Amino acid sequence: MNIPTDTAGPDTGDQSQRFLFEQADIRGERAHLDAAYREILAIHQYARGVSRLLGEFLAAAALLSSNLKFEGKLVLQVRSEGQVPLLMVECDDTLQVRGIARGAEHALSEDFDQLLHNGQLAITIDPTNGQRYQGIVPLEQGSLAHSLDNYFKQSEQLNTRIWLAADTERAGGLLLQQLPAQISPDEALRQQQWDHVCALASTVKDTELLALRSEDLLYRLFHEDPLRLFAPSAIRFQCSCSRERTRNALSTLDPAEIIELLEELGSITMECEFCNQGYRFEHSDLTDILEGYIGKTLH
Questions:
Q1: How many helices (H) and strands (E) does the chain have?
Q2: Hey, which of 148, 174, 181, 215 has its CA 20 to 30 A from 31?
Q3: Contact 134, 73 (CB under 8 A)
C-alpha cells in the first residue's frame, strides 16, 4: 500500500479514513467509532441489541457522509412496527454525529428483524444551502448493510457495498464504491476488478472491523492490491441542538397552550432528546411569540 506522509499520527479511535485502489476505479472508506459511540449510549440506557443497532447506524452514517461535497448533513431514519419504532442518526459534513432510538424501552431482542420489523429506511441528504433529497428503501435481508446495498442497487448509482459491526463499546464499518471509468474503461475488466475487491472484503470479520487499525485491516484484506490511504478525519459526538432552534420549535405551539404552561409552571423547559440538554424559557423570553394574542393573559 502507498501511504502518504500526511497520515502520521494515531490510527485508532473515532475516525473515518478514505482509500483508493491505484489500479482500479474503486474507492473505499473505513469508519470507526469509539468514545463518540459510548458518549451517545451514555445518554440513554438502551438494551444491548438496541445499542448495537444504533452503533451500526452511526458507522453507516459516517461512511456515507464521507462523500458529501457540500455543507450539510446526512440523516438515516427508520420507522418500524418492531420493538424499535423509531431510530435516527445524523452525520454532517464535518463528521459530527448524533443518534437516538425512540420507544425502545422494552426492546430486549438482539435480532435485527424483530427490532425493526417491517421497517422503512429513509436516507436524507440535507444541504445547508440547496435542495433536500430523500430516498426510501425497505429494511430487508436481516441487516442494515444489506438494506443499504439494496438501496444503492435500486437507485442505479455507482456499485456500492457496505459492511458494519458494533458491540456496545465500538462501532465500525467498511464501504467500497466503484468510480466512473478512468483507469479501466473496459467494462469486463471493471466488473472483474469490482468482483475481486468485494470478494476480499466479504471475508472481513466483525472483530476485525471493530479492533484493527485501518492500515492493518486494509493490509489484511487487500495486501496484493496497490492502495493509497489518505489522512483520517475525526468523528465526534456533537448535538446540533441550540436555544434558538428549541425556541423556534416552541413557537410552533398554539399561543394559548404556551400561556397555559407559563401560568401553570412559571416557565417552560424543553429538553433535547439526543443529548438531554435543557432549555428554560420564561414569559419575557417569549414576548414576541405571544404578542398580539388576545383572549388569555397571565395573572
A1: 10, 14
A2: 181
A3: no
93-119 pLDDT per residue, tens: 999 999 999 999 889 999 999 999 999
Q: What is the pTM of this model?
A: 0.86
**Please, what sign has the CA dihedral across residues 169, 124, 135, 85?**
positive
Spans in the chain with pLDDT lower than 70: 1-12, 156, 292-299
Phi, then psi, of 81 in degrees rounded to 5: -100, 10
Measured CA to CA, the distance from residue 90 to residue 4 in angstroms comes to 30
Q: How do residues 228-287 score in pLDDT, each as one tens digit? A: 999 999 999 988 888 888 888 888 888 888 888 888 888 888 888 888 888 888 888 888
Taking CA 27 as the corner, what is the angle to CA 138 and CA 63, rounded to the nearest 5 degrees?
A: 45
Look up residue 12 and give its three cell numbers.
485508532
Q: Which residues contact 87 (CB under 8 A, 6 or more apart)?
A: 53, 54, 57, 77, 78, 80, 99, 100, 101, 102, 104, 116
- Return the closest-CA partner of residue 253 out of 221, 217, 289: 289
The H-or-E segment that residue 268 falls in is: strand 268-271
